[in-house]
Amino acid sequence: MRRDGNGPVRSRVSPDVEALTAESMAFRAVNCLLRVAALIPKGTVPVLGGILGTLWYAADRKHREVALRNLRIAYGDELGETDRKGICRRVFLNLATVILELPRLLTLTEEDLDRYITFSGVEHVENALKKGKGVLVMASHFGNWELMALAFSMRHRPIKMVVRPLDNALLDRIIDGIRSRGGSETIPKKGSVRRLLRHLRQNQVVALLVDQNVDWYDGVFVPFFRETACTNKVMAVVALRTGAPVVPVYNYRQEDGRYRTVFEPEVPLIRTGDTTRDIEENTALFNRIIEGFIRKYPEQWLWLHMRWKTRPYQLWPRQSLRLQRWLVIRPQIRSAGA
Prior knowledge:
- The protein is of the alpha/beta class.
- The protein has twelve helices and eleven strands.
- The strands form three sheets. A seven-stranded mixed β-sheet has the order 3-11-10-4-7-5-6, sandwiched between helices. Strands 1-2 form a two-stranded antiparallel sheet. A two-stranded antiparallel sheet has the order 8-9.
- It is globular.
């Protein structure tokens, strides 16, 4: 601080430093509040989740309509309107409960894990690691995926997680702190392939969430439920290139409030010798596996996400090449006809 003559006192702290200080203070404040929220008894969380979820469902028309539209796309005539609305409402209740469970992850210890989550099929990961090529864990926004990742790293082994940073920097910092508590490491999605390949060469476990919409240049258009969906192709590309085993996983909330995490056997990859076809076929295979999980417990998937947002207007390179040739040939045909 300094004074110019008889003028006002002016700060010598730069705006960037002031902003950083404000952000740090906000982080500490929010972190403190979350730790207080972590004291809510375990049995009370689902009750509060039910109340808040019901209010959320009634008030949030935008996401309610997104979820209902997704359910219509996915199930078509398999479900009537009443059933779709029932699932939609339970989705909001489930997500509200998941959000209320997040503060507990800041203080969760390995000794407490059995009260919150159990594991089965972990031997599939261990057997896959024996191949020495690392393991690609195929995960999705299902159940409480943050609890699943943290608990696995605490109970079994740390993992590498490819994630898209959250839009809110403060929230992203908090969630990243939760993810790293068990020794796991997050890999920002943008430009992640090189680091991903390095970790696989070191025979480590790398988890990817592959159930959300992506832009056309990051995905391939393959079936998901009853409609074509632009699906991230990185899992198929990396698995085919490196030979790393792909092990699916999902977790779901049981009636006693605990989550059950299920690792399934390694997925046998489809190899035809046609690279483009192999990427498409294996990505479609991964979608079918995730769809199977969702059909078992539909209310525990993230239906609020616009899964079918990107439409197949941009062709896959094989078809795009034909189109480019046609666009070159067509003017020549027209000029010749003239």
